Amino acid sequence: MTSPITTERILLALVTTVFVLMLLLFGFLFWFALPVFINTETPVLSLIWMPEQGQYGILSMIVGSGLIGLIALTLAFPIAVGIAGFCLLNRYQKMAVWIRRVIRLMAGIPTVVYGIAAVFLLVPLLRETFRGGSGFCLLAAAVMVVLLILPVMVMMLDTHCRPLANQIRLASASMGFTDTQTVLYLVLPNATKAMASAALLGFSRAIGDTLLPLMLAGNAPQLADSVFDSVRTLTAHIGLVLATENGSAAYNSLFAAGLLLLAISVTVTLLIRKMEHAQCDARKGDAE
Length: 288
What we know:
By secondary structure, the protein is mostly helical. The chain is 75% helix and 1% strand. Helix 3 runs antiparallel to helix 6 and helix 4 packs across helix 6 (138-174).
């Protein structure tokens, strides 16, 4: 048997290795992105992306990523909370079992399947209904990203809320609360940190996806005036430039985009971990 001391050393070595690899990745991206950021002739943090004229600004792509993430989160969050709350109601437990199975199934569907379905179903619908362009737009990408982040958010909320509901259900029933009142007034108000963690995780997943924005957003490097305009995200920009450029100034903009995406991802992960630790500390305090 492996001794506890040996196990601790192995875990410490693994954590140290991951930490060093993350530092090396940050250092690599920072080293190659720094000349791009300090270049005053072709500033990378500008709104103009015109490689033929020496303009390599990726600011519009940062805005595009943020818009898709925020719109998708705004649409997905209330749906996720509603599904998680519905699955806690006792009288719908048989239906809740099937809902959880469907959610887990959705989490395993490849992103490209969502993209192909949207190209042939959602995009023509938007084009014919609103007559506002080609249908490849900000709204099309955001709607499909909702399907991508919804299972993750629902599973995270369900993991936190279900034990809490089981813990307080008998006490709430003895006080005269109905099942619905227990969920609305006791469970969900005590799951705000889990909601915040789910929202952060959903937003991180939304801005980190590549295929859906690449296939559906139109890939126009511009600021959108409406949800029916085409946009380009940082992830789609990386995919497009990698496929068409090598060693040019446009290619160098990839390092700036990668550094920004990595910084956002690490920041969101640290915030989620901080909230999870706060939840654990709160539970320990309640137990004591």
